[in-house]
Amino acid sequence: MALLTKKYDVVVVGAGGSGLRAALQLSEAGLSVAVLSKVFPTRSHTVAAQGGIGASLGNMSEDNWHYHFYDTVKGSDWLGDQDAIEFMCRQAAQNVYELEHFGMPFDRNADGTIYQRPFGGHSANYGEKPVPRACAAADRTGHALLHTLYQRNVRANTQFFVEWMALDLIRDSEGDVLGVTALEMETGEVMTLQAKVTLFATGGAGRIFAASTNAFINTGDGLGMAARAGIPLQDMEFWQFHPTGVAGAGVLITEGVRGEGGILRNANGERFMERYAPTLKDLAPRDFVSRSMDQEIKEGRGVGPNKDHVLLDVTHIGKETIMKRLPSIFEIAKKFANVDASKEPIPVVPTIHYQMGGIPTNIYGQVVVPDETGANKVVNGFYAVGECSCVSVHGANRLGTNSLLDLVVFGRSAGNHIVDAIKHSALNHKDLPKDASDMTEARLARLENSTSGEYAQDVADNIRASMQKHAAVFRTQETMDKGVVSIMDIAEQVGRIHLRDKSKVFNTARVEALEVDNLIEVAKATMVSAAARHECRGAHSVLDYEHPENHPEHPLGRNDKEWMKHTLWHRDGNKLTYKPVQMKPLTVDTVPPKPRTF
Amino acid sequence: MSKNTRTFQVYRYDPDKDAKPYMQTIEIELESTDRMLLDALLRLKTKDETISFRRSCREGVCGSDAMNINGKNGLACLTNLNDLPQTIVLRPLPGLPVVRDLIVDMTDFFNQYHSIKPYLVNNSPAPEKERLQSPEQRDELNGLYECILCACCSTSCPSFWWNPDKFVGPAGLLAAYRFIADTRDEATASRLDNLDDPYRLFRCHTIMNCVDVCPKELNPTKAIGKIKEMLARRAI
């Protein structure tokens, strides 16, 4: 059956920060663009970012992009590609000024410049002391950024397909990408959207874990589609635990709280981060702080009846500062933890937050896969930006504020590159292959014809419980090996999902069932990649491979000789290949690896 | 009945199979971890996957899960179950066409938002760095820019119910004033022209339902009052 087909220059899948930033370049250049989103654009998860966007504006104290570059390389535990990191940090200031010119309501200093606050892992003079680098709109920076970019796209007349879910990527026999199939949620209609260029900006997959700061929509749809279409996924073993999710609820409490002076305390009231990170203390990078918290809990200094969390104390910074700089945090603490943050500490626990890995790309957002020799080869017609991509600027651990920066820098870069490609090289639509929609139709038919089997949400819960158990803050080789077996078992259940609701109209059960097809690919990629990496690096912390800081070969368990390389997980055969980390920046000197202490 | 059992009366309508809408009564045993109304709705959905509603961030910032809860508009994710009576009555937001169950067609709402030109207008050449704005000038945007477009306000407004195609409504007018109040915006005159109309602005009769229901505790009526005041001053 041939689906109804619509043709565009560019199809953008996802309308969060990176998708909207790219779409803006494309619309303003006069291309025909269709932006698909499962939710109204301002409901994308970028809206939940709180603390700030990183740029070395130097509005509060001396700062420059070289420091930002160094911090990001070190923060990544030397898994980040130094060319991409230089590209991002050099452009940061220009991109933030541009957002301001678009109308983004940043907080201000007395001299009228943008207000900046300190954030984890950001330092002046190569690690000497914390520096205020996070450009902030109170604790609603993501909301301010996303709404501003949506508004700017309204001005540019960008065409949105709201509440459409992309289902599968279309590739022809030469491997070129020609568009996507997609489901209009309101009517249940399925269509082919054909494009000269397809750009994925589908966000992360934080919902593969049970305890997550992520929204329900973050099901890794772009990663699932890419994997099913034969594109490998890069560095999926690296998942960031945010140190401060509200205990029990998972809701995010920004690192900006610690940037404004908040302190983590254990059951004894001790500021324990002083022991783990004497220089940066509570503002060490997230992987480091999360592990320290977990260590405190493991050693019996956790808080609460089950001693299973620690406390985030802001009582000393004063109600006025809290209400001015952290008003949403005050609201979240009241609503989700039942505490008055100006009088009592907030119960917090490390919570899954961000996916460092994703669809491999270069700095222009072009998706790259290994050729026969293992070198990067561009996939024609396919780009990816934002959390679904891996460029890789975050490496094994992302610094706070670099995610919003990543969205705008690479969204803009990809947009410009696509405009050039279409306007200057007469890129045309290729003919769709006959089997373009076969996979989609088979997936839909399987659900439509199901008469018994398992509930999609039960299977999704099984994935989440397994990931939570087998890929936690501290991993062991045994738990990861068991995790691989467990996830491959659950993958079998996915094929047996029974959709009871067969309605055509806004069928959220069908959407959720289709999302499970994506969740499982991300879970497989994560578990298989993790179990194979026999070292500790960034967020991938394995007790079996831990070593002290002064270990001659593997300081802190990091094994640069064997493991300073990117993982590529291939769905076909469930196998792994590797590619080197790009150690050479674009113009400056390499930051050589060293033990990562703060 | 155990103390964790709650009775839900939920508005149900699936145009694919129902001739007309009906209220369905469902009793459900809640878990101690179910804190918010959204948690209870998700539990309901595990029992009957056909119950349809929008949701995403579950922390009151994306604006997806607005609905009418025991007669008052609000977000399911920010409504604590302890603050609700034993019987919880859920209906779609009033005044907009129902797509299915608790999901409404928000086209009218967004059309009105788009009609106020919701973007900064500044045609002066941009400086190399940021445009400067004092903290006091920036403070003028507080209580305006935080809107999450959930539509709780506009769909609680009788004036919007009668004229959703002509009256901008509280959310759109709040956004209009957000740009008027921004010292970087150069389009105040045309923004006022755009609203100087018996319907677009002046259908607001200060009923203040919008203020009463806003889950972000914003005050659209106050913003509307400021626009009216500017128009009055301009007319003198």
Sum up the overall morphology of chain B in one term.
elongated
Oligomerization state of this entry?
heterodimer
The number of helical elements of chain A comes to 16
* Low-pLDDT stretches of chain B: none
Radius of gyration of chain A: 23 Å
Gap from first CA to last CA of chain A: 60 Å
DSSP strand tally of chain B: 7
The count of helical stretches of chain B stands at 8
How much of the polypeptide of chain B forms β-strand, as a percent range?
A: 5-15%
- What is the radius of gyration of chain B computed over CA atoms, rounded to a whole number of angstroms? 20 Å
Report strand % of chain A. Answer: 15-25%
- Look at the structure and give the mean pLDDT of chain B: 96
Helix content of chain A: 25-40%
What is the N-to-C order of secondary-structure elements of chain B (H for helix, E for strand)? EEHEEEEEHHHHHHH
Pair of chains with the largest interface and how many residues each contributes = A-B, 63 and 56 residues
Strand order of the largest sheet of chain B: 2-1-5-3-4
Structural notes for this entry:
The complex is a heterodimer of chains A (598) and B (236). Chain A has 598 residues and is α/β, with parallel strands linked by helices. Helix content of chain A is 34%, strand content 20%. In chain A, strands 1, 2, 6, 7, 8, 9, 16 and 17 form an 8-stranded mixed β-sheet that branches. A 4-stranded antiparallel β-sheet of chain A has the order 11-14-13-12. In chain A, strands 3-5-4 form a 3-stranded antiparallel β-sheet, with helices on both faces. In chain A, strand 7 (164-171) and strand 8 (177-184) form a beta hairpin. The N and C termini of chain A lie far apart (60 Å). Chain B has 8 helices and 7 strands. By secondary structure, chain B is α+β, with helices and mostly antiparallel strands. Chain B is 30% helix and 14% strand. In chain B, helix 2 runs parallel beside helix 5 (169-180) and helix 5 crosses helix 8 (220-235). Chain B has helices at residues 37-47, 107-115, 135-139, 158-162, 169-180, 188-195, 209-213, 220-235, and strands spanning 5-12, 22-29, 66-69, 72-75, 87-91, 98-100, 103-104. Chains A and B meet through helix 3, helix 4, helix 10, helix 13 and helix 15 of A and helix 3 of B.
